Structures
1.
Amino acid sequence: MAKITYIEADGTEHVVDVATGKTVMEGARDHNIAGILAECGGACACATCHAYIHHEWFDKLSPANPVEEDMLEFAVDTDPSRSRLTCQITVTDMLDGLIVQLPES
Ligand code: FES
């Protein structure tokens, strides 16, 4: 279990518990947090689960694999220093405290 803070583009914060083994995308979806569409359901085929990882956490995550890197090119307003596809980040206890900023679009 990890407590994850999702911050919407308008600044609204949601602090929720996400079970180990879920993805960061599923954590948002399961708590009805706006800003992550996840149209492909987590298959790394749509880029609509793009979000910005807080700089204190970005380097603590496993790096994006080549498929995610390719798909990130289809996301809007990416920032190489903090953009990830949240369906590709599996929650572990190590991610307790993770902060995720949701994009405007
Ligand atoms: Fe489609 Fe993540 S949900 S790429």
2.
Amino acid sequence: MGNQRVLSLVQPTGNLHLGNYLGAIRNWVEGQNQYENFFGVADLHAITVPHNPATLAADTYAIAALYLACGMNLECTSIFVQSHISAHSELTWLLNCITPLNWLEDMIQFKEKAVKQGENVSTGLLDYPVLMAADILLYQADKVPVGEDQKQHLELTRDLAARFNHQFARKQPVFKLPEPLIRAEGARVMSLTDGTKKMSKSDPAEGSRINLLDPPDAIAKKIKRCKTDLFEGLEFDNSERPECHNLLTLYMLLSGKTKAEVTAECAQMRWSQFKPLLTETTINALKPIQDKYRAVMDDKGYLESVLRQGREKAQAIADRTLSQAKAALGYSVPL
Ligand code: TRP
């Protein structure tokens, strides 16, 4: 285990899909032994838009179980639930009071989501990036794996950390400025129904994504119906064929073959040959994850013990940072 700390959280909304897995989770898992990792379930972020109380807890457990199913190793990785550690909410309040309102109003994701919410935009939605900054800064994270859409939030986190340190902790900085951990090239997974759009859990078309927990018949159906083209043969990197590039990339990533191998294997193929191959490869690649997920979900006691351990480790670090922040702001911190 290295001495650099990596932290990331995933919201418990909807299912994780191949884009999340190939674009993010698989990379974290592959590199996990080089770092000390904290992976959380962002259930406080989940209520910034209308949510379903009846499924919140189950959805939260499901993400934690999927983390385990995807191969997170508990020797170097702690898995925790954001709402279990009250320091997240508390630091958010402290940071709120040093966050200029216009920084939040200018956030791209806020503006996009606010349009969708219409009249019902909550203060929490506006404050979402400050909660995310608290998540990161509490752990003194060195690296945060983020996708393109979260880069602006990480920038804000760095700006807030610098502002706090500058205003209140000049002699001894309280917060470390985190760096983004950019994902490996070639792992950008696009929608199955439009090769120019990212695979996304907010896409209303269920057929646009393959979820990690999709049963084999659903996978077969989605691949059967996915968008293709009328060119001859299959190839990477033809900008007129975004779907072809995406499906070959999926095949490459899921089969573990190199780009050169896939290029040679598929050059002469027709879609009717390639689709069953991709279907079988996808089903086989997801099977171990699905088996492990079921085993974890069937053993609630185990999952709870993992989350308890994760919480203990996370809480100790988070509470220490919170105390330092409070002391810097001038609070009398009870001993
Ligand atoms: N906002 C992130 C997303 O939707 C989730 C998130 C919450 C996060 N807190 C975080 C990611 C801290 C990285 C670090 O993807």
